């Protein structure tokens, strides 16, 4: 993990305080949706990870970068909610933004800091990382902590235990990511 690069990402979160939305796609055309969002001038993020794939006709395996979840994309709120809603409705692709309440109209906003921490934790170069579904993440019990020492310094989340190891869990609508961490590097978050 490139500590300097990741700290720069966390510092940029303080400068850009625009929240993010989690968008559920009804189909697996993330690339096409990404192209549409680029045309609209909207920043987006797709969590990626490496997958080993067999090369046809050869006895080789290569690592390929693929989306973790094929029907989820995160977009930055760059306009008012009403304008964002109109832009998404005008899309040729069917999608839905996670809402605060099931039958409410307000979108669930992920703070800029939380999203930047999530992006840092989703770095595909990190080996000791696990992705979990939203339901699995909610079932895990753990105390809210902040990492005070080591390469993950500054990240926050819940300290959870799985398979006799400790992980820092960061939840966002639609999914969660867990990074292996030493519990001695963490302190309780008083917020």
The gist of it:
The protein is α+β, with helices and mostly antiparallel strands and 191 residues long. It folds into two domains: 1-17 and 112-191, no CATH class; 18-110. The protein is built from five helices and twelve strands.
Overview of the molecule:
The chain is an alpha+beta fold and 191 residues long. The protein folds into two domains: 97 residues, no CATH class; 93 residues. Helices cover 26% and strands 34% of the residues. The chain has a six-stranded antiparallel β-sheet with strand order 7-11-10-9-8-12. The protein has a four-stranded antiparallel β-sheet with strand order 2-5-1-6. It is globular and about 50 Å long. The mean pLDDT is 86.
Keywords:
2 domains, alpha+beta, 191 residues
Question: Which geometry do the CA atoms define?
Answer: globular
Instruction: Give the strand content.
Output: 25-35%
Please outline the major beta sheet.
6 strands, antiparallel
**Cα distance, first to last residue?**
27 Å
> How many discrete structural domains?
2
Summed over residues and divided by their number, the pLDDT gives a mean of 86
Oligomer: single chain
List the helices and strands and how they pair.
Blueprint: H1 3-15, E1 20-25, H2 30-40, E2 44-45, E3 48-54, E4 61-67, E5 72-76, H3 81-89, E6 95-97, H4 112-121, E7 129-133, H5 134-139, E8 143-147, E9 156-162, E10 165-172, E11 175-180, E12 186-188
Antiparallel strand pairs: 1-5, 1-6, 2-5, 3-4, 7-11, 8-9, 8-12, 9-10, 10-11
Helix pairs in contact: 1-4
């Amino acid at each position: 993990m490139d500590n300097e690069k990741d700290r720069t990402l966390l510092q940029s979160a303080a400068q850009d305080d625009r929240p993010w939305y989690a968008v559920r796609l009804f189909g697996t055309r993330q690339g096409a949706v990404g192209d549409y969002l680029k045309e609209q001038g909207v920043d987006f993020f797709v969590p990626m990870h490496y997958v080993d794939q067999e090369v046809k006709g050869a006895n080789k395996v290569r690592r390929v970068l693929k989306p973790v979840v094929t029907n989820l994309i995160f977009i930055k709120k760059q306009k008012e909610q009403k304008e964002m809603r109109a832009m998404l409705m005008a899309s040729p692709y069917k999608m839905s933004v996670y809402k605060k309440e099931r039958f409410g109209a307000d979108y669930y906003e992920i703070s800029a800091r939380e999203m930047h921490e999530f992006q840092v934790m989703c770095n595909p170069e990190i080996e000791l990382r696990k992705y979990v579904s939203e339901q699995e993440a909610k079932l895990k019990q753990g105390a809210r902590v902040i990492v005070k020492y080591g390469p993950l310094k500054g990240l926050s989340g819940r300290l959870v235990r799985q398979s006799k190891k400790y992980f820092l869990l960061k939840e966002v609508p639609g999914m969660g990511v867990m990074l292996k961490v030493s519990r001695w590097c963490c302190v309780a978050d008083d917020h």
